[in-house]
């Protein structure tokens, strides 16, 4: 038995029976990181010393009979979630030496649950990207094919789970940044409902779209992580005081009575890879086999989601990223001539090209004379996208689609064409615009051995229904059990 | 061209970025392409549609005005690039 290959629930069972210790488990994960990190490059910071201490603490709790589902479980955290005393860079040179003085809400929750944080994972700078190539730190590789991207922006979190360099991880999803890398790396990834998980301590990209969520080896682990991080937080004014159910108490007794909507527009998507649509069609048959009814639904404004997103997200980002001015924290350039010159040289040297591009795009969309044509127009079409979902959910419980139009592409393939990169988020963006939850579960492999993900979206706060369908689907397949050879 | 080089320079200045000639040319092309794509929104009739800025219905999140523990000045200054006597230090703002 290789300890690093265990799922969270398997490891937790063994910890409970005292067949293994968290120290052994954590050491096994750290050894695994030591042997594959050079190839995968999933981590920006590895904190072995604290991890082992946390593991020993967990072991002493377990010996006293205090064990929660995440007690002693080694997990990884995307490097834009603040960890007290542990460097948090957002994969940006501008925050290269930033050490938070407090824990994000989700980190407090993880620590309270007894989880062991092994390190901080790579990402696109400030979560802006779909390939993790926009990282200012390093290029993460897809464990299934080291010449391919892992997806993004939570590419490090997805690759770390796929390569058994942690048992589960946290990412953030603004336009697909959990679901798309989960799909490309063959793991489970969930974007919760907007407001379900507190954003306190999550470095802001686009505040009306950002949401923290789990990446995991299977659906049960995903539900366990959801149990740990969901909940109301008065420190986040967009956090919703809605009761948190037990996400793991889903039924495995089939899906009869459940209706799954399949948007007719998705089959008309340009650039949809036939292997991806084939895998998704097979998934539909499996789900129907569990007694779910599949119906056609329509989301007529979905084709505008990319255009809406790339006005709204950069607009919010341009405002959020105004705080990086070289005064309160982060990098400051040596320029001393004047305050304005210092701001400019600090920001120009500190931000990478994609971040600068989006700041300019966002500033332009919000600027006097263009606001109505861009930001206001996009916000109105956003309303129509939300209405589409509301209408579609009148005739179905969940909506099913591919996660990404193609399997993982090659490193470097789209880096010089931002618009082509943006279009790879076509199936995931609208869930963020509408604030609804979504999951990616492994549903196949391409002929070249790259994972393909199935996307299930639900109504606001109906994560449990999504997890139930995903869990049943997983029982009939073994895609999630296959391991990348690194 | 959807956005001119001058507009890129002007917008960069608003955003406190200082672009070199290379970046100006590249951004004008790339942002131009993106804005052209965004123009597909013009074909949508949005007459009378209320803009959405927030996807979840929430009324104002009020709370009691209570004194609570907050971050100490030392901690708040811990990441400052330059500090002195409990203050952030910045280059001079007003020329004498």
TrEMBL record, chain A:
It catalyses: L-glutamyl-tRNA(Gln) + L-glutamine + ATP + H2O = L-glutaminyl-tRNA(Gln) + L-glutamate + ADP + phosphate + H(+). Keywords: ATP-binding, Ligase, Nucleotide-binding, Protein biosynthesis. InterPro entries: Amidase, Amidase_CS, Amidase_dom, AS_sf, GatA. The active site is at 78 (charge relay system), 153 (charge relay system), 177 (acyl-ester intermediate). One of its GO terms (molecular function) is ATP binding. Its EC number is 6.3.5.7. It holds the Pfam family Amidase. GO terms for biological process: translation. GO terms for cellular component: glutamyl-tRNA(Gln) amidotransferase complex. Residues 24-467 form the Amidase domain. It is an enzyme of class 6 (ligase). Heterotrimer of A, B and C subunits. PANTHER family: GLUTAMYL-TRNA(GLN) AMIDOTRANSFERASE SUBUNIT A, TRANSAMIDASE. Belongs to the amidase family. GatA subfamily. Allows the formation of correctly charged Gln-tRNA(Gln) through the transamidation of misacylated Glu-tRNA(Gln) in organisms which lack glutaminyl-tRNA synthetase. The reaction takes place in the presence of glutamine and ATP through an activated gamma-phospho-Glu-tRNA(Gln). This is Glutamyl-tRNA(Gln) amidotransferase subunit A. The gene is gatA.
TrEMBL record, chain B:
It holds the Pfam family GatC. GO terms for biological process: glutaminyl-tRNAGln biosynthesis via transamidation; regulation of translational fidelity; translation. It is an enzyme of class 6 (ligase). It comes from the Bacteria. The keyword Lipoprotein does not apply. InterPro entries: Asp/Glu-ADT_sf_sub_c (IPR036113), GatC (IPR003837). GO terms for molecular function: ATP binding; glutaminyl-tRNA synthase (glutamine-hydrolyzing) activity. It catalyses: L-aspartyl-tRNA(Asn) + L-glutamine + ATP + H2O = L-asparaginyl-tRNA(Asn) + L-glutamate + ADP + phosphate + 2 H(+); L-glutamyl-tRNA(Gln) + L-glutamine + ATP + H2O = L-glutaminyl-tRNA(Gln) + L-glutamate + ADP + phosphate + H(+). Keywords: ATP-binding, Ligase, Nucleotide-binding, Protein biosynthesis. Transmembrane segments: none annotated. The keyword Signal does not apply. Its EC number is 6.3.5.-. Allows the formation of correctly charged Asn-tRNA(Asn) or Gln-tRNA(Gln) through the transamidation of misacylated Asp-tRNA(Asn) or Glu-tRNA(Gln) in organisms which lack either or both of asparaginyl-tRNA or glutaminyl-tRNA synthetases. The reaction takes place in the presence of glutamine and ATP through an activated phospho-Asp-tRNA(Asn) or phospho-Glu-tRNA(Gln). PANTHER family: GLUTAMYL-TRNA(GLN) AMIDOTRANSFERASE SUBUNIT C, MITOCHONDRIAL. Belongs to the GatC family. Heterotrimer of A, B and C subunits. This is Aspartyl/glutamyl-tRNA(Asn/Gln) amidotransferase subunit C.
């Amino acid at each position: 038995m290789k300890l690093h290959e265990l799922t969270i629930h398997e490891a937790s069972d063994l910890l409970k029976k005292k067949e293994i210790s968290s120290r052994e488990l954590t050491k096994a994960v750290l050894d695994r990181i030591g042997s594959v990190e050079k190839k995968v490059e999933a981590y920006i910071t590895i904190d072995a010393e604290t991890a082992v201490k946390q593991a020993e603490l967990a072991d002493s709790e377990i010996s006293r009979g205090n064990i929660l589902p995440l007690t002693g479980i080694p997990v990884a955290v995307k490097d834009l979630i603040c960890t007290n005393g542990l460097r948090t860079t957002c994969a940006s040179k501008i925050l290269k030496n930033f050490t938070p003085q407090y824990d994000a809400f989700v980190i407090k929750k993880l620590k309270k649950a007894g989880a062991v944080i092994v390190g901080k994972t790579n990402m696109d700078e400030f979560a802006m990207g779909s390939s993790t190539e926009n990282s200012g730190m390093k290029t993460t590789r897809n464990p299934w094919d080291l010449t391919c991207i892992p997806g993004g922006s939570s590419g490090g979190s997805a690759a770390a789970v796929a390569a058994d360099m942690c048992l589960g991880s946290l990412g953030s999803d603004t336009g697909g940044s959990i679901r798309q890398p989960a799909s490309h790396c063959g793991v489970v990834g969930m974007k919760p409902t907007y407001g379900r998980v507190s954003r306190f301590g999550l470095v802001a990209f686009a505040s009306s779209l950002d949401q923290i969520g789990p990446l995991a080896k299977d659906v049960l682990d995903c539900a366990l992580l959801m149990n740990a991080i969901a909940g109301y937080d008065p420190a986040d004014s967009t956090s919703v005081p809605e009761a948190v159910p037990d996400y793991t108490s889903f039924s495995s007794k089939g899906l009869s009575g459940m209706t799954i909507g399949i948007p007719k527009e998705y089959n008309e998507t340009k650039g949809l890879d036939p292997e991806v649509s084939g895998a998704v069609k097979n998934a539909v048959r499996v789900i129907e086999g569990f007694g779910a009814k599949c119906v056609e639904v329509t989301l007529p404004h979905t084709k505008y989601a990319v255009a809406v997103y790339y006005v709204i997200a950069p607009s919010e980002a341009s405002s959020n990223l105004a705080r990086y001015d070289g005064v309160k924290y982060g990098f400051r350039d040596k320029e001393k001539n004047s305050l304005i010159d210092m701001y400019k040289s600090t920001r120009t040297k500190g931000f990478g090209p994609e971040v600068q591009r989006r700041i300019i795009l966002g500033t332009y969309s919000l600027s006097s004379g263009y606001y109505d044509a861009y930001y206001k127009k996009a916000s109105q079409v956003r309303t129509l996208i939300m209405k589409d979902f509301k209408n579609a959910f009148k005739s179905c419980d969940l909506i099913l689609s591919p996660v990404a139009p193609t399997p993982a592409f090659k490193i470097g393939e789209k880096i010089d064409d931002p618009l082509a990169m943006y279009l790879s988020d076509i199936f995931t963006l609208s869930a963020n615009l509408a604030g609804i939850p979504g999951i990616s579960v492994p549903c196949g492999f391409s002929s070249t051995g790259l994972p393909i993900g199935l996307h299930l979206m639900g109504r606001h706060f109906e994560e449990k229904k999504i997890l139930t369908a995903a869990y049943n689907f997983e029982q009939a397949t073994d895609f999630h059990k296959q391991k990348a050879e690194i | 061209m959807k956005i001119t080089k001058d507009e890129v320079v002007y917008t960069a200045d608003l955003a406190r970025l200082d672009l070199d000639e290379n970046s100006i040319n590249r951004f004008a092309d790339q942002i131009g392409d993106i804005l052209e794509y965004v123009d597909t929104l013009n074909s949508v009739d949005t007459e009378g549609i209320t803009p959405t800025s927030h996807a979840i219905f929430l009324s104002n999140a009020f709370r009691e005005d209570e004194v609570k523990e907050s971050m100490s000045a030392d901690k708040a200054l811990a990441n400052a690039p330059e500090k002195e006597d409990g203050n952030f230090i910045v280059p001079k703002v007003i020329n004498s």
